[in-house]
Amino acid sequence: MGKWTAIASTPKFADGETPSGTADGSNVTFTLAHTPAPATSLQLFVNGDFQVPTVNYTISGATVTFTNAPASGDVITAFYRY
């Protein structure tokens, strides 16, 4: 019989999270509650519009940096595994 390999951990999910930071037309930096793992699991939306990684934003750890600052009143929503 073969050996069993332990799974490191069960992934958790953030669904519909609002990143911290102020959408005011000048702030480009927002912070997620957790670091996405993998980073490519992040799906980010502004006012329901999907944001394309490396085109509309970059991510480093739990920090999201937008290419263009979200306007005042914009709704930012994140979905990811961590």
Short description:
The protein is an all-beta fold and 82 residues long. The chain has one domain (13-81). The chain has strands at residues 13-17, 29-31, 43-46, 49-51, 57-60, 63-66, 76-81.
Describe this structure in words.
The protein has 82 residues and is mostly beta strands. Helices cover 0% and strands 35% of the residues. The strands form two sheets. A four-stranded antiparallel sheet has the order 1-7-3-4, with no helix packed on it. A hairpin with a 2-residue loop joins strand 5 (57-60) and strand 6. It starts with 12 loop residues before the first strand and ends with a strand. The model has no long low-confidence stretch (mean pLDDT 94).
Proportion in helices: under 10%
Shape: elongated
- Averaged pLDDT: 94
- DSSP strand (E) fraction? 35-45%
Number of strands: 7
Give the strand order of the largest sheet, numbering strands 1, 2, ... along the chain. 1-7-3-4
**Order of helix and strand elements from N to C terminus:** EEEEEEE
Q: Count every helix, treating DSSP H or I runs of 4 or more residues as helices.
A: 0
**Overall tally of structural domains:** 1
The biggest beta sheet, please? 4 strands, antiparallel
Roughly how many Å is the radius of gyration? 15 Å
The computed structural class is mainly beta
Q: Unreliable runs, pLDDT <50, ≥5 residues?
A: none
Question: How widely separated are the two ends?
Answer: 33 Å
